[in-house]
Amino acid sequence: MPRYFFDFSDNDELFIDREGIELPDEEAAKRESSTIAADIARDHLAGTVSPGIVEVRIRDEAGNYLTSKAVHIEFDDPLPGATPDRVKPSPHLKR
User: Fold this and answer.
1) What count of other Cβ atoms lies within 10 Å of the Cβ of residue 9?
2) How many helices (H) and strands (E) does the chain have?
3) Residue 90 per-residue DSSP state
4) Would the pTM count as exceeding 0.85?
5) Which residues, in sequence order, are bridge partners of residue 9?
6) Tens digit of pLDDT for each residue in 17-63?
């Protein structure tokens, strides 16, 4: 199975995925990137990601970028009950 890598930028900071995930095909990798983007948005609610633009980029084993997904995170007020101890951090956000 091919291995795909999910690099992401959190505002101006770039995080490189050095392990990757084996997935059946590029479509599965695109679905995984949607899950990662949703996890990042959820982590923002927990206070672990700053407001701004987060971009998830899919890279193949040869290092070619295949596609990307961007999430714009902005909230005027924190949601009631959205505290770090009530929301589990995403495993995709390894720093």
Assistant:
1) 16
2) 1, 5
3) P
4) no
5) 14, 55
6) 999 999 999 999 999 998 988 887 777 766 655 667 788 999 999 99
C-alpha to C-alpha distance for 35 and 19, rounded to whole angstroms:
17
60-88 confidence digits (pLDDT tens) = 999 999 999 887 777 565 555 555 554 44
Q: What string of H, E and C letters represents the secondary structure of 11-48?
A: CCEEECCCCCEECCCHHHHHHHHHHHHHHHHHHHHCCC
Six token digits for residue 61: 């084993």
Q: Rounded to a whole number, what is the distance in angstroms from the first to the last CA of the chain?
A: 26
75, two tokens:
């909230």
Indicate the helix (H) or strand (E) that contains 5: strand 3-10
